[in-house]
Amino acid sequence: MDDKKKTIIREIEHWRRSKLLPEQYCDFLLNIYLEDNQEKPGSSGGLFGITASKISDSNWKIWVLGLVVACAFSFTVLHFNAFQLPMQIGVSLLFLACCYGYGGYKREKDPMGSQILIGMASLFLLFIGVYLMKLHGMQSSVFVVTYVFLCSLVWIATGLLARHVPYHLGGWVSLVFCYGWLLHYQLDSISWVTLELSWVPLSILFCWMGWMVHEKSRHMGLVFFLLSLIVWYMPELYGMLYAEQYGEMTLQWMLLVKIVTEASLLFVWRKKWTEWVV
């Protein structure tokens, strides 16, 4: 295949990944430029760009390198608890840097593989911090919530850079739960009035923020809109945890009123919010 044809095929694959053209149009164009016995780059690209042809044509040095990496990873996992705290933190940061770095590098060429790597790194970030605190006797709720707060900021930044809604939304939801923990320990007595006043204005604020930024960033507008819908029900979620104190019947009626109110608002304003969310 000459260089000109390779360039055209790369452009078609870029159009496919960027959703600039429908999938069937990209397949049609690839059929024009690819020969019958040639493998389509997008048809069986595999995860992280690994195809069957790449495996069959791989060099023995790649296999040796993979074996060394697998052995080093296994040794590190098996002896992780025996390491000193600085070593444990260093190893964890190295793993996170590799996952985030390679995920960011593959974001354009392999979006699915990139999302898997970034998601795995985000979950590992939360897990390893809580695990190390438990391992070294720092199990105070203040330490845990502070660490979750920091993880939330990382997830928000990751979602913004990768323009991926789940990471961005997950970071904000974690911050919301940190706010709920703070309310639980700061308020001496919580009634339905204080609960609603603590959460409903916040839900309205997030909805307003989504409306303000939707023209500049549809991604952020969607995140704030979904977040406002989640925060809307946070008083009832808190009430479920303490149903005996607030009363199950009261909880059911409050939840019903919330659902009807939200459904009515979404219906009345459907021509507005669908423009910047859907």
From TrEMBL:
For the keyword Flavoprotein, the answer is no
Q: Where is the signal peptide?
A: none
Classify the source by domain of life. Bacteria
Q: What residue ranges are annotated as transmembrane?
A: 62-81, 87-105, 117-136, 142-162, 169-187, 193-213, 220-238, 250-269
Which keywords describe this protein according to UniProt?
A: Membrane, Transmembrane, Transmembrane helix
Asked whether the keyword Transmembrane is assigned, the reply is yes
Descriptive protein name: DUF2157 domain-containing protein
Its taxonomic path starts at: Bacteria, Bacillati, Bacillota, Bacilli, Bacillales
